[in-house]
Amino acid sequence: MTDTSADLVILGGGSGGYACAFRAAELGLSVILVEKDKLGGTCLHRGCIPTKALLHAAEIADVAREGDKFGVKSALEGIDIAGVNSYKDTIVAGLYKGVQGLFKAHKVTVVEGAGTVVGPNTVEVNGQRYTGKNLVLATGSYAKSLPGLEIGGRIITSDQALNLDYVPEKVVVLGGGVIGVEFASVWASFGAEVTIVEALPRLVPAEDEWASKQLERAFRKRGIKFKTGVRFTGATQTETGVTVSVETGEQFEADLLLVAVGRGPNTAGHGYENIGLAMDRGFVLTDERLRTNVPGVYAVGDIVPGLQLAHRGFQQGIFVAEDIAGRNPRVIDEAGIPRVTYCNPEVASVGLTEAAAKEKYGSAETYVLSLAANGKSQILKTSGGVKLVKSPEGSVVGVTLVGERVGELIGEAQLIYNWEATAEDVAPLIHAHPTQNEALGEAFLALAGKPLHVHG
Ligand SMILES: Cc1cc2nc3c(=O)[nH]c(=O)nc-3n(C[C@H](O)[C@H](O)[C@H](O)COP(=O)(O)OP(=O)(O)OC[C@H]3O[C@@H](n4cnc5c(N)ncnc54)[C@H](O)[C@@H]3O)c2cc1C
Ligand SMILES: NC(=O)c1ccc[n+]([C@@H]2O[C@H](COP(=O)([O-])OP(=O)(O)OC[C@H]3O[C@@H](n4cnc5c(N)ncnc54)[C@H](O)[C@@H]3O)[C@@H](O)[C@H]2O)c1
């Protein structure tokens, strides 16, 4: 017999919901979690994990194709898409098993089905009511489209793009944000002709302008086309293709149109209105402690305005569990959440962009170190760099990296930002040679006035 009351009832078993469930259970609280689909949510089944598996397969394709850059005779014979999908699906299946095991290990009661909020602390699933001393809303997000642009056939979102059983020859990607550039990168590596259409003046427009320039240069070299500062006006599809029109009058023919224009909060139809929850354009409004306007009701993850990232959801879930358990956790600094775009080359950042720092502090000092000064990056034949942003008070308030594999370097940058370190704090700390990580160390040496492998 399933329990029908608990300390916490959580609606949604994605990154935010399950992290909250596990931490609450660790703190001795009883938890009921309601999930209508698969535990693990978007990130595990339709997001982070499958896309990164595709990106890794894409990297292998590039390595095979470019062996002679390193004196190795190799050639890319082709992409076995069934093999790629099977590799990706095996990774997802393994992690899914792991997550299910963690639910059991934490003794979280899982209720399968779509939940509806019917009272401030009550969720109904298949006619059964579940009551919590606290309710945590974690229903995630969905891929948005544009008015008049219907998803179906050759017009797809990331949900369908992850499970294609062929490599398209020509693709138009609508939206040069994170999803857009990641899929553009995969398809280009797999041999497709890719054109990105982005309404704002640059690719990855949420990043520092310097990073956009670096990425655009690298994409140009890779033959990935892009039109920035251009609005989409329409798409028509036939049996054999799709024609995409933009406001300049230009038209693009393709096999597929990937719509990657952002993700909307999945908050409609779950009874949120039944409890008078304060919302804005579908997002659930919370205070900095993730409390909604309804006492005892919290929200975490993509339904809360701000970054839509799995690790933000994890930390918000942990935060709420600790808050409910009376642990008084420290409020999360949204700018301190690292952001990584895993295209080739990668873009990784934490803290403020130069523009945001100037807006916040009136002025900001910056330093850019090119990866041309970094031995390991030369060995890998990758270009890019490290950009540091320093506040007038002296602490480093922003770090942005561009280059192959730099996503793995953001961990150190994240500590530097969140511990409010100065360049002088970091400069004496030793970075192993030759690593790409050393580029970060050398950028800090230079910012502290002691440049090593840089001219001038
Ligand atoms: C293609 C793609 C790639 C991504 N890559 C990355 C990445 O590399 N790194 C990163 O940090 N983030 C990435 N993200 C974002 C990341 O997936 C999300 O930020 C994260 O999944 C949000 O977690 P969440 O718990 O808020 O929601 P979700 O993971 O969406 O979970 C919500 C859950 O709630 C369930 N649910 C909804 N309504 C109900 C209901 N009424 N009753 C019961 N259950 C319900 C859903 O079935 C779902 O399982 C990516 C997203 C996409 C789409
Ligand atoms: N590596 C990661 O961490 C990762 C990977 C994938 C997705 N995600 C998350 O998923 C969310 C959704 O990703 P996304 O790429 O769909 O959203 P996004 O907000 O990153 O990018 C959407 C882009 O579409 C553009 N756009 C909007 N309307 C347009 C129009 N009419 N014509 C042309 N361009 C238009 C926007 O200017 C923007 O650059 C992101 O917030 C991201 O955090 C994260």
TrEMBL record:
<feature type="binding site">
    <location>
        <position position="115"/>
    </location>
    <ligand>
        <name>FAD</name>
    </ligand>
</feature>
<dbReference type="InterPro" id="IPR050151">
    <property type="entry name" value="Class-I_Pyr_Nuc-Dis_Oxidored"/>
</dbReference>
<dbReference type="InterPro" id="IPR006258">
    <property type="entry name" value="Lipoamide_DH"/>
</dbReference>
<dbReference type="InterPro" id="IPR012999">
    <property type="entry name" value="Pyr_OxRdtase_I_AS"/>
</dbReference>
<keyword id="KW-0547">Nucleotide-binding</keyword>
<feature type="binding site">
    <location>
        <position position="52"/>
    </location>
    <ligand>
        <name>FAD</name>
    </ligand>
</feature>
<keyword id="KW-0274">FAD</keyword>
<keyword id="KW-0285">Flavoprotein</keyword>
<feature type="domain" description="Pyridine nucleotide-disulphide oxidoreductase dimerisation">
    <location>
        <begin position="337"/>
        <end position="443"/>
    </location>
</feature>
<dbReference type="GO" id="GO:0050660">
    <property type="term" value="F:flavin adenine dinucleotide binding"/>
</dbReference>
<dbReference type="InterPro" id="IPR016156">
    <property type="entry name" value="FAD/NAD-linked_Rdtase_dimer_sf"/>
</dbReference>
<comment type="similarity">
    <text>Belongs to the class-I pyridine nucleotide-disulfide oxidoreductase family.</text>
</comment>
<feature type="disulfide bond" description="Redox-active">
    <location>
        <begin position="43"/>
        <end position="48"/>
    </location>
</feature>
<feature type="binding site">
    <location>
        <position position="262"/>
    </location>
    <ligand>
        <name>NAD(+)</name>
    </ligand>
</feature>
<dbReference type="GO" id="GO:0006103">
    <property type="term" value="P:2-oxoglutarate metabolic process"/>
</dbReference>
<dbReference type="InterPro" id="IPR001100">
    <property type="entry name" value="Pyr_nuc-diS_OxRdtase"/>
</dbReference>
<dbReference type="Pfam" id="PF07992">
    <property type="entry name" value="Pyr_redox_2"/>
</dbReference>
<dbReference type="GO" id="GO:0004148">
    <property type="term" value="F:dihydrolipoyl dehydrogenase (NADH) activity"/>
</dbReference>
<feature type="binding site">
    <location>
        <position position="198"/>
    </location>
    <ligand>
        <name>NAD(+)</name>
    </ligand>
</feature>
<dbReference type="InterPro" id="IPR023753">
    <property type="entry name" value="FAD/NAD-binding_dom"/>
</dbReference>
<keyword id="KW-0520">NAD</keyword>
<dbReference type="InterPro" id="IPR036188">
    <property type="entry name" value="FAD/NAD-bd_sf"/>
</dbReference>
<keyword id="KW-0676">Redox-active center</keyword>
<feature type="binding site">
    <location>
        <begin position="139"/>
        <end position="141"/>
    </location>
    <ligand>
        <name>FAD</name>
    </ligand>
</feature>
<feature type="active site" description="Proton acceptor">
    <location>
        <position position="433"/>
    </location>
</feature>
<dbReference type="GO" id="GO:0005737">
    <property type="term" value="C:cytoplasm"/>
</dbReference>
<feature type="binding site">
    <location>
        <position position="302"/>
    </location>
    <ligand>
        <name>FAD</name>
    </ligand>
</feature>
<dbReference type="InterPro" id="IPR004099">
    <property type="entry name" value="Pyr_nucl-diS_OxRdtase_dimer"/>
</dbReference>
<feature type="binding site">
    <location>
        <begin position="175"/>
        <end position="182"/>
    </location>
    <ligand>
        <name>NAD(+)</name>
    </ligand>
</feature>
<feature type="domain" description="FAD/NAD(P)-binding">
    <location>
        <begin position="7"/>
        <end position="317"/>
    </location>
</feature>
<keyword id="KW-0560">Oxidoreductase</keyword>
<protein>
    <recommendedName>
        <fullName>Dihydrolipoyl dehydrogenase</fullName>
        <ecNumber>1.8.1.4</ecNumber>
    </recommendedName>
</protein>
<dbReference type="Pfam" id="PF02852">
    <property type="entry name" value="Pyr_redox_dim"/>
</dbReference>
<keyword id="KW-1015">Disulfide bond</keyword>
<keyword id="KW-0963">Cytoplasm</keyword>
